[in-house]
Target: DNA-directed RNA polymerase
Amino acid sequence: MLELLGSKAATLDGRLRDGSAFSGDPVETLSKTLVDHGHNYLGKELLYSGVTGEPLEAYIYFGPIFYQRLKHMVVDKQLKSSTKVSHHIFSTVIKLPTISRID
Model:
């Protein structure tokens, strides 16, 4: 939550911000930056319907945030299985010879 508030403030004033919880910028400083640029001090946004143009009944808390993909995906681990391959037609497990194993 603090990272999102910091990244939103950073995009508005163009300064680098620290979004960590322990040594980052204080919430008051980030909120003041948002208010100075005409936004809600908590970072909430009022969205409007794309169909009717009316405002939605809830405030939405969104903004740019860092996302890191998990490196060890299940599909990768399944493809690296070195001894057995499942055959979808027969629903059986086929044992591969050592030479043709997928590494």
